[in-house]
Amino acid sequence: MKNLIAITLRETRSYFSTPSAYIVGAMFLVLTGVFFVFDITRPFAEASVRGISNWSGSFIIFLAPLITMKLLSEEQKLGTLELLLTSPVREWEVVVGKYLASLFMLLFIQSATLYYVLLLYIFGQPDTGPILSTYLGLVLHGAAALSIGILGSSLSGNQIVAAVVSIAILVIFSFIDAVASLVEGTAATFLNSLSMDQRLTDFSRGIIDTSHIIYFLSLIVIFLFLTIRSLETRRWR
Amino acid sequence: MIKVDKVTKFYGEFPAITDLSFEVPKGEILGFLGPNGAGKSTTMKILTGFMPPSSGTVEIAGFNILEESLNARKHIGYLPETVPLYLEMNVSEYLSFMGQIRGMNSKKIKQRITEVIETCSLQDYYKTIIGKLSKGYKQRVGIGQAILHEPDVLVLDEPTIGIDPIQVVETRQLIKGLGEAHTLILSSHILPEVSMICDRVIIINEGQIAAVDNPKNLGTNLSGVERVEIEVKGPNQEIIPVLEKVDHVNSIERIPITGSGYHRYQISVDVGSEIRSQLASVILENQWELLKLQSIGMSLEEIFLKITVHEE
Ligand SMILES: Nc1ncnc2c1ncn2[C@@H]1O[C@H](COP(=O)(O)OP(=O)(O)OP(=O)(O)O)[C@@H](O)[C@H]1O
Ligand SMILES: [Mg+2]
User: What is the pTM of this model?
Assistant: First the structure.
């Protein structure tokens, strides 16, 4: 546990000591801001964060891999993984420690969008329930995307490759419902149930479905587990 | 302290090391010597538990590196060949992190960082970002993290590579000093370095042990001969036949030298026969002048070449 905290702290500090995280974060804020403005300036617009939710769900496909791509790739490339894995540290402590740091980074970036929420409260009377559920959805969705991102980063010493692999997996999980509409019956239900986007939409409507929460948490567990295995088998290669 | 038993490692089809067995008792400094691609780094990655061997076992401080990996790793300090460091951290932050993941408490970490900074002469670079350090100082930070937690076993992969000649001398001194408190295994392809630092040398070539001995003995035992070099003033045609008759002399080779009047010979003699005084008295009996009489071993360079270069 102490190892895990040490790794999380080091990684978090490293995020804030390099400019790339700020750049990525700023880009995300500008984009969500733009779509937020589009959404609330439509005629008959309601005071809601749906604009943020709809779009940041898609942005996450790029944001999460950008945050996580260096986590294990860089360690492989620099060779620091060799020191980490020859220290008395378990693989899961490395993976979970780094994952938590990326989660902090994501929360930090997402929390900046609260500024837009503040504007809503100043200039309108938004419904608090859906805003809370939207943010719960965004955090869960983001956290799941990060777990896919860290798996990608365990697979290659090249950060670009890591990011591309993660983006590919995320695209599948996001748009699989489009494929579902092409087929019928149980196959369609199954494919639909894998989709992240459908569930995120529910959250933005103010629906908190336990099965959605379980879905995202399961994704996190599964992908972190795969990352740990990937790190273990790295040794055997 | 280190026990390596019949370790083999395949990279795909390629055997990087084959059937390697050796032991390092507590307190010994073992040199691991071999040309490029001999399998030194591979062996060290296996010793430290980074990579499992394809077959065979490794024990560190009594713990099997695979089965009791965590316990074994607690006893190891490791400097990989590439000196991996987190470039965006400063020296003390980095050392502190390495201390934490070795399970040291913060008080101990503080105390040890002060000591290590001193041992590795890093006083002026305590707060410097590692990415900005010169290669030699990065190397010192690498050694620093390896000794931080006072491990029983130190594994250093080419610790002096890339360091300038002045710093190399200091670094070697530093490593030799470390040997007092740790069981140390270091790899190198620099022979004088190994003979200066190490108690014992393993010469490895193409993944197999070619020779094991202490640096002094390697010279005589391996070549099977001992040599004596003499310089004599006298008639060459007479000197050789006379010297050849002395007991235990195997062969005499004349070494051409400029500036005449005297001749230099290398005489190979039976191992362990101490015949220098006999040679001296023979020469004096013949009333030649003896200018030099010296026993010479085979240099490690010669041995190294002899062992590692195949004679077709
Ligand atoms: N990851 C790897 N995959 C495939 N082959 C490898 C790998 N690492 C090393 N080898 C091969 O194994 C052999 C031994 O390599 P190793 O790095 O152990 O040599 P070394 O003795 O450390 O050499 P050097 O003095 O150059 O550092 C070499 O032929 C090398 O090409
Ligand atoms: Mg090597």
Answer: 0.83
Residue of A nearest to B53 (CA): A236
Residue B129's DSSP bridge partners are: B90
Domain that holds residue A45: 2-235
Q: Which of B185, B219, B253 is the last residue of a domain?
A: B219
User: Which residue in A has a C-alpha nearest to residue B101's C-alpha?
Assistant: A3
Among the partner-chain residues A13, A81, A86, the one whose CB lies closest to the CB of B73 is A86
Number of domains in chain B: 2
> Would you say the C-alpha torsion B256, B260, B263, B264 has a positive or negative sign?
negative
Calculate mean pLDDT across residues B195-203.
Answer: 87
B82–A79 CB contact, under 8 Å: yes
H helices present in chain A, as ranges: 2-17, 19-40, 50-78, 80-86, 91-111, 114-123, 128-155, 159-180, 185-194, 196-204, 210-236
Whether B108 has a pLDDT exceeding 90, the answer reads yes
Q: What is the ipTM of this complex?
A: 0.87
Pocket probe mutation, ligand 1, options B40, B156, B203, max atoms within 8 Å of Cβ: B40
Task: Give the number of domains in chain A.
Answer: 1
- Domain match, B35 and B102 both: yes
B208 lies in the same domain as B239: no
Chain B residues with CB within 8 Å of chain A CB: 45, 48-52, 70-71, 73-74, 76, 78, 80, 82, 84-89, 93, 97-98, 100-103, 145
